[in-house]
């Protein structure tokens, strides 16, 4: 642990590395990992649970008066009314993990009175550690990172995640995907939102968008992005997005252009824009029938 880092960030790093060790050991024998299905295409493994337990134990040993909000155990642990709340995704990218596809991570954020103050995203397969403290910048393996400087969307690489839950509007998402694909240098779907956001912060991707995300998917990544000079919000560009289940991030120029494309698909879009999307959907359906 580094003496120059905030003590709370150091504890988060310790917790993330402990979880990463559990994940890496399990990855050596994926076939033996027990998998359960929470809902369609939404999996949890014994590794998720063991990693989460290791994180919670590490955090509460240091700060027993803090609250916990974790993907698998919710608010079962920690203090219930603390101003400090740790927001934890022990294994973001579980579907990738159980297939041996090496794109997944540990995500830990600390919120104080609802504002994210510290963040860690740890990729155990590459031993990449993304860290941030509010006002102190964002770092990858102790090296300062910044969002990319690309200014034209046609040159930008954008990452996303497809909706996979029952009730998700897949048709609308495919229209978003189509619009972005035609206006950018490429769209990627890695499958771990926290790592996608870390990659925006590092400048590997110029933008990111996805719907249906929970707060533990985006809390840590959101601070990395803003501390690296980027912007993050919902599809209409509003910054109060953490629990709105739609997320858009990017370098400032790419972000503005993405908002202009995706804003009409937001659940917070104007009535006029929603009618426009409905009309486009009807046109698409009519053309499919005609074809």
From TrEMBL:
It holds the Pfam family Inositol_P. One of its GO terms (molecular function) is inositol monophosphate 1-phosphatase activity. Its cofactor is Mg(2+). Its EC number is 3.1.3.25. It catalyses: a myo-inositol phosphate + H2O = myo-inositol + phosphate. CDD domains: IMPase. Keywords: Hydrolase, Magnesium, Metal-binding. Mg(2+) binds at residues 71, 89, 91-92, 217. GO terms for biological process: inositol metabolic process; phosphatidylinositol phosphate biosynthetic process; signal transduction. InterPro entries: IMPase, Inositol_monoP_metal-BS, Inositol_monophosphatase-like, Inositol_monophosphatase_CS, Inositol_monophosphatase_SuhB. Belongs to the inositol monophosphatase superfamily. PANTHER family: INOSITOL MONOPHOSPHATASE, INOSITOL-1-MONOPHOSPHATASE-RELATED. This is Inositol-1-monophosphatase. It comes from Comamonas denitrificans.
């Amino acid at each position: 642990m580094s003496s120059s880092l905030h003590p709370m960030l150091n504890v988060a790093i310790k917790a993330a590395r402990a979880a990463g060790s559990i994940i890496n050991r399990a990855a050596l024998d994926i076939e033996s990992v027990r998998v359960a299905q929470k809902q369609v295409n939404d999996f949890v493994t014994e590794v998720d649970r063991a990693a989460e337990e290791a994180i919670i134990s590490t955090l509460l040993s240091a700060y027993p008066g803090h609250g916990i909000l974790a993907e698998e155990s919710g608010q079962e642990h920690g203090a219930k009314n603390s101003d400090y709340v740790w927001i934890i995704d022990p294994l973001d990218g579980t579907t990738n993990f159980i297939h041996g596809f090496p794109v997944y991570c540990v995500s830990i954020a600390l919120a104080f009175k609802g504002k994210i103050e510290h963040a860690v995203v740890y990729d155990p397969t590459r031993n990449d550690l993304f860290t941030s403290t509010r006002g102190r910048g964002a770092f990858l393996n102790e090296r300062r990172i910044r969002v990319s400087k690309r200014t034209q969307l046609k040159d930008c690489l954008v990452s996303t995640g497809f909706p996979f839950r029952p009730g998700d509007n897949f048709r609308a998402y495919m229209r978003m995907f189509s619009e972005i694909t035609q206006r950018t240098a490429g769209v990627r779907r890695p499958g771990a939102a926290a790592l996608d956001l870390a990659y925006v912060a590092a400048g590997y991707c110029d933008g990111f968008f996805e719907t249906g995300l929970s707060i533990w998917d985006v809390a840590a990544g959101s601070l990395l992005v803003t501390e690296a000079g980027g912007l993050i919000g919902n599809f209409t560009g509003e910054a109060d997005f953490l629990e709105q289940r739609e997320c858009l991030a990017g370098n400032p120029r790419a972000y503005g252009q993405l908002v202009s494309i995706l804003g009409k698909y937001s659940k917070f879009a104007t009535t006029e824009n929603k009618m426009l999307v409905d009309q486009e959907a009807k046109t698409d359906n009519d053309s499919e029938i005609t074809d």
